[in-house]
Amino acid sequence: MATQKTVRFMQGNEAVVEGAIMAGCRFFAGYPITPASEITEGMSVRLPPLGGVFLQMEDEIASMGAVIGASMGGMKALTATSGPGFSLKQENIGVACAMEIPCVIVDVMRGGPASGMSTLPMQSDVMQARWGCHGDHPIIVLAPATVEDCFHLTVKAFNLSEKTRIPVIIASDALVGHVRERVEIPAPEDVPVFNRRKTTVPPEDYLPFHGEEDGVPLWADRGTAYRYHMCSNCHTEKGFPADSNSAVMEKLLGRLLKKMETFEEDITTYKAYNTDGADTLVIAYGSCARSAFEASDRLAAEGKKVGVLQLMSLWPFPEKLVHRFCEGASTIIFPEMNSGQMIKEARLAANKTIHGLNRFDGKIIHPQQIIDKIREVSR
Prior knowledge:
The chain contains 13 helices and 14 strands. It has helices at 12-23, 37-46, 60-72, 83-99, 126-131, 147-164, 174-178, 246-262, 264-267, 287-301, 319-327, 343-350, 367-377; strands spanning 6-11, 27-30, 53-56, 77-81, 104-109, 140-142, 168-173, 180-185, 270-273, 280-284, 306-311, 313-315, 331-336, 355-358. Helix 11 packs across helix 12. The model has no long low-confidence stretch (mean pLDDT 96).
């Protein structure tokens, strides 16, 4: 008998937990940190009855290492943190990138640098999410704005990670993580779940880092006759180090980066709100998108058409999408709760003037501020 969807009133962080469970996550390792601790707490409750594993590690570095190990063993694995902990995870995130380990990392952003403002929201980690690890590595970053987004993007994060064998970061923030909203949780059979593809070749022919046509290597279960060697150095298709072999490095990195192009359409996620016929466009993500929707509605009541492009995938940056939506707009606003990190990417993609609206004092950008900015630049 088919199960029915359920309606819940829950936090964004709680919705991440439900999305992870629905996607098949059965391992969590983390360390409590404001404002992400509800994810750790939620997984500690939800995993054991399902036969999953919850570990509170001694720190964020170890947490990321445990996630890598669990995923290498075949489990879908999650960790969650905020800015300071996210910084500590970077080296092991780089290891996951190099060894193509599927995993999901949630960063519930708060004010920084260093300890900053532990309870207040900012969007200051979006560049770190892309470039926190050294090297020209691929990474996928998704950004929720609502509690419902938190659920669906967490499911999508696991599916993308399993499909591409690229770590996926969910860049939430303190407001999105703690706000409570009505959410419809679909029945499990209505949630698309992707599991990593496994090899069918005989063990003697298996190459753990041989990319298929889409660039993604097929998986082999651990503890079987299949031999594998996991290495974070420049490595051959067999997985063995080839540190000084430039040809091997070029082939390896080229394949890793190719995956981003291959799956660009799958990764690119957005919402378009009131954009039909709109001469003014607001590009926003996370908490700022919530204010942008309200600003659009208020101006619509005055007879003004202001569209909103909510970016739900930040990296790889959706250049084609942004260019397309900016083509017909004469006025473009980009509010961010930082000093202006993503606007640079948008300007390059649109090849147009885009006006920034920035706030980095731990307070949200209100709808009225967006309205005032639109009126200011439209004079």
